Amino acid sequence: MYQDALLLYLVQKFCGERTCSGIYHLLKGKKSSQSVQDSYLFHVAPFFHSCSELSRSCFDARIEHLQRAQLIKPIDAECTRFVLTEDGVKLLDVFPENRLIPDGLKIIDQINEEGRFWLKLQLLVQTVSALCQGQSAFLPVVRQPEISEHVRRLILSGPPTRDQLGRIVFNELYQLFLTMPDDEANSLSALLSGWKASGLTLDQMAEASRRDALECSILFKSALRRMMNLFVGSPDQFPFLSRLLIGRQSSLSKTAETTRKLLQTGLTLHDIASKRHLAVSTIEDHLVELTLKKVNHWLSDYLSTACEQQIMNVADHLKTRQLKPIKNHLGERVSYFQIRLALAKNAVSGRKVVRINEQ
Amino acid sequence: MSSNQSFLKQAQTILKEQFGHEQFRPGQEEIIVNVLNGRDVFAMMPTGSGKSLCYQIPGYLLQGTVLIISPLLSLMEDQVHALRLTGEKNVRALNGLMHPFERSRVLQNLRSLRFLYLSPEMLRAQTVIKALSKITISLFVVDEAHCVSQWGHDFRPDYMHLADIREQLGQPPCLAVTATADEHVRDDVVRSLNLTHPAQIIMSVDRENIAIIVQKTANQKEKTEQLFHLLEKAPYPGIIYCASRDWTERLAEQAKQKLGLRTAFYHGGMDSIDRRKIQNQFLDNQIDLLCCTNAFGMGINKQDIRLIVHFHFPSSMNAYLQEIGRASRDGKQGLAVLFYTKSDEQLPEGFIDGNFPSDEMLHRVLLQLDQGTRSLADKNEFMSVLMEEGVSETAARFLFEHASEKPIQQTYSSLLDPCRMRIKERVAVQVNDLSIMKNYLATSSCRRKFYLRVYHEKLQEKPAYCCDRCGIPLSELMQRIPKKKRTELRLMDWKQKLAALFQESGRSPL
Ligand SMILES: Nc1ncnc2c1ncn2[C@@H]1O[C@H](COP(=O)(O)OP(=O)(O)O)[C@@H](O)[C@H]1O
Ligand SMILES: [Mg+2]
Ligand SMILES: [Zn+2]
To answer: Regarding the domain delimited by B210-344+436-480, which CATH topology (the fold level of the hierarchy) does it fall under?
Structure first.
């Protein structure tokens, strides 16, 4: 089953260095600096926010299942951190990689806009579907005020007649879906609601398509990311729908983006913290995020090359990406912040994390 | 022709042309004529009997805008939606959840509105009052008027200010409507809203076209068996009310497996988009059986629900009548079945406690408000933080509404004792409601007679299919209930789906 393979894959990637909660937060796309950083550190960024509807109880049940089936085994007394068993490795090895990670999933440049984009798209399609069938009354699936506001403006700026509006949305969606694998297009379109054509929930789609809900979610996210990517890359081809994405186009979180702009004006980390009434540690998180996303032009101000070398040597020696053991080893010579920066920088440059279960 | 007759005639025309109904339902004419005469009116009619029409028709015959104060956001949205479906465009809502731009657009265009739905807290904003006082208000409607009374089961402190506000708006005539209010509550409503010599139109709470069965079972297992026995031959679409989220999911799954029904579950723990999808599917007849908690149903406007099952019993007669009242609103035959077993009796008691903040929580929240570590500035924020801390929605609202009532010169902590008092009173009311409900389950005489007595009514004429105590020939009853044609909920490929969304099947893409 897909969901088992997915969880095995992530357990393997996390090398037992994070608890199960870390995997859960990754899939949910928790907006904490820890989750974002982990997604880069362990090379699983495509899965960030990939199963945003997964409930904790479902997740826990699947982990329990894997443990009972002896595909994973705990490495701590509390049973929160796991590695694969031999059976687990075998099972994962035979699972086709391209099914596990569809290509679209890897397009993560717009990841911070993904949630809002999807809300806007659903509301737009539902509204246009009703309008072009002469209906002005329907129960909208999305009810967030700013989303409605945005969609309203987009529709008002669109073609003048309902017929033309329906036609252009239809055509653009048609062209978009043509570019994707059918499985993905089917998944995304099944979730869309319209006039007398209610969308399915993920669970319903799973049942109807005989896949599990996680695979449905991954297929849908892959389609969504391809779509956003096309809108950014070739807006001329999709003149109307691509405007759903106008505004911010950055993989940085909003708050990290603000920090980046202030850094550009020459402020120091401490200046920014006091100016923004935020904790210094929060600004440090932003710098780590900038580093992960390769836009930290100030890295050398906070981490010398020598210091970085020292940290990475210890990390490799101890075969870990956990802060504490590294810090214990180096003592007062380096700060936690510096360790995080070093790990972040080297996560990006592609240094492989040694797998504990291979020892 | 007397003026009353001419009013009636006009009302009838609107009924047909705007709403597409052939005739008035009991009570509607009398209410409408009184409203058109400019009188204050207090009206009580059961859920689903058509109270909205009583202010919607006057909206087309009076000069100005009809204001409707409605306590629940979802309800408001559904009402606006229902009016839109009739082709009415000049209808808007104002509530705290709207985008500020949208709100100011509404305020700028008040004059063009025929209907404006408002949540009570909106009326506390001076900008809103000011804008409203510039237009002609033809009618001041208070929906769910029992919320005005603290003896009612759903008291809202925000409702207490309505009389003042009506005065500020030039004392337009008032129509107060509710589905349930005993005499005590009625008097309270008339007094609190300052209604002058109101016409009182009180209709029976009874819904004759719903056959009622209450079935006691030995244990949970037998209860489930009995349920599935019923579901095999029951009419659809139907709703099963359960006390917990788990049960909704479990029953939906079992009914799907065992009976091949198209089922779904619905509860407050679901993502809001999924909830809305399920609701739309149910309205579009793509679901036969919906297993839900009491989170579902408020404001749902579906005429042909044939079956209401209670797998757990609700905590008051009020809630019960409201829930079974969702069956067969089109007047055709419907069926309500309640199953219970001894162990169910502990459930509602827990709910009553959960409806209010614990003493410790009350104390702490008031203190934090004084210390400024919690703020009332943003209601949603206040509520959602509390709910994350595990406080129920009703309890969080209780805290918000009572804390908002604090006089300026006092501390929040000074509200502690009054709040405790209020909780004690309210718990007493709810415990009493629950015991009435339990007596209903235990009664050995006619169910209908029993609940009518609770509302100080007498059963005038027994319907042919009355209740389990009077005896119901089940198979004959099933014959009487209309059957629904089903439409399938299919998984389409993307081309089919796009065609369905945009009705483009006749055309090919560019
Ligand atoms: N005179 C009538 N004839 C037919 N249907 C009616 C009539 N009056 C109301 N209805 C329908 O009854 C349903 C319930 O009305 P509503 O006003 O929402 O009930 P409630 O009394 O619970 O507020 C609505 O679908 C409405 O269209
Ligand atoms: Mg109503
Ligand atoms: Zn009877």
So the answer is: Rossmann fold (3.40.50)
**Adjacent-strand bridge partners of A83:** A73
B264 part of contact set with chain A, CB < 8 Å: yes
The model scores a pTM over 0.90: no
The structural domains of chain B, with segments of one domain joined by +, span 2-202, 210-344+436-480, 350-431
* Residues β-bridged to residue A72: A84
Mutual angle of helices A114-131 and A213-233, in 10-degree steps:
90
Best mutation site among B22, B52, B330 for ligand 1, i.e. most ligand atoms within 8 A of its Cβ?
B52
Q: Which of A101, A129, A150 is where one domain is finished?
A: A101
Q: Whose CA is nearest to atom 25 of ligand 1?
A: B301
The question of ipTM being above 0.95 is answered as no
| Domain-terminating residue out of A202, A227, A245 | A245
C-alpha distances in Å from residue B65, one per residue of A106, B90, B141:
55, 10, 11
Q: Say yes or no: A240 and A164 in one domain.
A: yes
* Full residue range of the structural domain in which residue A325 is found: 254-348
Burial class (CB in 10 A: 0-12, 13-18, 19+), B205: buried
* Cβ-contact A127, B84 below 8 angstroms: no
Quickly list DSSP for B347-407.
HHHHHHHHTS--HHHHHHHHHHHHHTSS-SS-HHHHHHHHHHTT--HHHHHHHHHHHHT--
Determine the pLDDT at residue A249. Answer: 54
Is residue A148 less than 8 Å (CB to CB) from chain B? yes
For residue A126, the chain B residue with the least C-alpha distance is B501
Same domain, A317 and A212: no
Do residue A237 and residue A262 come from a single domain?
Answer: no
Question: B497, B504, B508, B510: which to substitute to probe chain A, counting the most A Cβ within 10 Å?
Answer: B497
Which numbered ligand comes closest to the C-alpha of B321? Answer: 1
Q: What is the pLDDT of residues B385-428, one digit of tens each?
A: 888 888 888 899 889 988 988 888 999 999 999 999 989 988 99
CATH class of B2-202: alpha beta
Indicate the residue of B97, B276, B510 with minimum beta-carbon distance to A171: B510
Contact A193 B280 (CB under 8 A): yes
10-residue block means of pLDDT along chain A (359 residues)? 96 92 93 83 93 91 96 92 96 94 94 92 96 86 89 89 92 96 96 93 91 96 96 92 75 81 85 87 86 79 87 87 87 88 74 40
Same structural domain, A71 and A119: no
For residues A188 and A287, membership in a common domain is answered with no
Q: Ligand 1, residues B29, B49, B115: which to mutate, most atoms within 8 A of Cβ?
A: B49
